């Protein structure tokens, strides 16, 4: 049977099924996102068979999608181990202790975005930033009495500054490579959208944070928390060298997975030497999460996290979502949808807008950052060349939507991960993650105004165009 390309109406069916099932699952069934993804997978399978694909082919497509997710799965497992070992070793309790002691409530929220942003720039990994300093900030914010959704939103904004902008970031390298753009040319061009979006986000966090600063817990309550931390753990500034070691290892461009494994075991060694934890307790924390008793129930709730098993639910969702993404790509659903956007392009502004929207649609359909970066670049590359636009415009706006904007999708891989680690629903924190909205929006504005849109002439890219 000949394999056919789906019509636009047919291509919409799996996405409509996903959206409808997600609505009922989240607001009526209270069953999370796994079943909506399964329902969409079933609809996609039926569509694939009707289009002439064999079941063995569909299984292969799912396998290809899952294969793309394996690096993220490995990192999820190791981050779970790191969280367990860093809590047991006193690293995260030390971060919480000094965070409560040193950061004034009036600047806490913008400080969260800035500090997480600096760390993610150094690490090039949003997952590592969220799972370490992000977890500490959630604990500090909760201890102070700030809304956790606001704190989580600031963490996400900071974490995806590095995911978008760091030369160590996988998505940054993939976007540049797929568009055939020099990595540092791509990064320099992203200054135009990243810096304004992040600075504006920090300003908004400062304004919003001030509204809550007067309502935070009293100094006495904060001191009580720190007292219980100091009674349970050895708190010492030297423990802060562990995050510094993490940054150094990744700046030196050592392989990510071995570096993270090493860092997790550094935490385990410190738990044994500094905190006096037994081997059984350490292995338990790395496997099932920290379970010690601080004598304060609210503090126990903050610290009883981490471990490999804490990541299993997220990993299951990631595997199903990427299996769906692989099938949607290979039966032609995503190609049909993205080509429909190209056919509506009438100007540079509409080209940029269509590219951003296409990346968001791929993110909505698959939940996978890499697909949301790769597929729009493949689809729109020729359209940018036909309009004499430098490829770095394409790489910039695709990364803005595919690597950062995908966090708007509550069932995306990044959202699954952040919700699992921070303990805050994506539906609660997404409205406060201002950076993820501003970056794509700024790119669309640039498309229609011409500001920073670089032309390509005689095979060479000109410098960025400034608005007069």
Summarize the structure in words.
The chain has helices at residues 8-29, 34-50, 55-89, 91-102, 108-123, 126-144, 148-165, 170-178, 183-213, 219-232, 241-251, 256-273, 279-288, 297-303, 312-330, 333-343, 348-366, 369-386, 391-404, 413-422, 426-429, 434-449; strands at 456-457, 460-461. The protein is mostly helical and 468 residues long. Among the domains are: 8-52; 68-312, no CATH class. The longest helix has 35 residues, at 55-89.
List keywords for this structure.
468 residues, mainly alpha, 1% strand, antiporter activity, transmembrane helix, antiport
Shape descriptor: globular
Low-pLDDT runs: 462-468
Class by alpha and beta content: mainly alpha
Topology, number of strands? 2
Order of helices and strands: HHHHHHHHHHHHHHHHHHHHHHEE
Percentage of residues assigned to helices: over 70%
Share of residues in strands: under 5%
- What's the arrangement of strands in the largest beta sheet? 1-2
Rg, please? Answer: 23 Å
Distance between the termini: 58 Å
Number of helices: 22
Report the major sheet. 2 strands, antiparallel
Average pLDDT: 86
């Amino acid at each position: 049977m000949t394999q056919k390309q789906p019509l636009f109406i047919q291509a919409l069916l799996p996405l409509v099924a996903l959206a409808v099932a997600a609505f009922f699952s989240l607001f009526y069934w209270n069953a999370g996102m796994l079943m909506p993804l399964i329902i969409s997978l079933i609809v996609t399978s039926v569509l694939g068979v009707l289009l002439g694909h064999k079941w063995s082919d569909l299984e292969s497509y799912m396998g290809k999608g899952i294969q793309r997710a394996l690096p993220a799965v490995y990192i999820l497992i190791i981050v779970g181990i790191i969280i367990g070992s860093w809590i047991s070793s006193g690293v995260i309790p030390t971060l919480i202790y000094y965070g409560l002691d040193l950061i004034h409530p009036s600047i806490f929220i913008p400080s969260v975005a800035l500090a997480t942003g600096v760390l993610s720039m150094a690490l090039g990994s949003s997952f590592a930033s969220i799972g370490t300093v992000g977890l500490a900030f959630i604990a500090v914010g909760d201890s102070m009495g700030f809304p956790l959704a606001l704190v989580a939103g600031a963490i996400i904004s900071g974490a995806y500054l590095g995911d978008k902008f760091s030369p160590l970031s996988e998505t940054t390298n993939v976007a540049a490579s797929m568009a055939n753009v020099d990595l540092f040319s791509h990064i320099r061009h992203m200054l135009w959208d990243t810096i304004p979006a992040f600075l504006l986000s920090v300003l908004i966090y400062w304004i919003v944070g001030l509204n809550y600063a007067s309502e935070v817990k009293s100094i006495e309550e904060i001191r009580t928390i720190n007292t219980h931390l100091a009674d349970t753990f050895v708190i010492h500034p030297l423990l802060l060298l562990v995050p510094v070691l993490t940054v150094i290892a990744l700046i030196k461009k050592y392989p990510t997975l071995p570096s993270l494994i090493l860092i997790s075991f550094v935490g385990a060694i410190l738990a044994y030497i500094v905190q006096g934890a037994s081997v059984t307790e350490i292995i338990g924390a790395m496997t099932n999460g920290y379970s010690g008793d601080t004598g304060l129930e609210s503090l126990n709730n903050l610290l009883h996290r981490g471990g490999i098993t804490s990541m299993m639910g997220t990993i299951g969702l990631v595997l199903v979502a990427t299996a769906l993404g692989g099938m949607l790509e290979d039966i032609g659903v995503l190609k049909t949808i993205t080509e429909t956007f190209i056919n509506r392009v009438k100007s540079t502004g509409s080209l940029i807008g269509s590219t951003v929207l296409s990346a968001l649609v791929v993110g909505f359909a698959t939940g996978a950052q890499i697909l949301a970066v790769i597929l729009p670049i493949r689809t729109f590359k020729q359209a940018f060349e036909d309009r004499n636009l430098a490829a770095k415009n394409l790489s910039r706006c695709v990364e803005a939507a595919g690597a950062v904007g995908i966090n708007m999708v509550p069932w995306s891989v990044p959202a699954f991960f952040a919700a699992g680690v921070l303990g805050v629903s994506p539906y609660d924190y997404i409205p406060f993650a201002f950076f993820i909205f501003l970056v794509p929006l700024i790119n669309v504005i640039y498309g229609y105004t011409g500001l920073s849109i670089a032309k390509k002439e005689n095979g060479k890219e000109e410098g960025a165009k400034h608005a007069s």
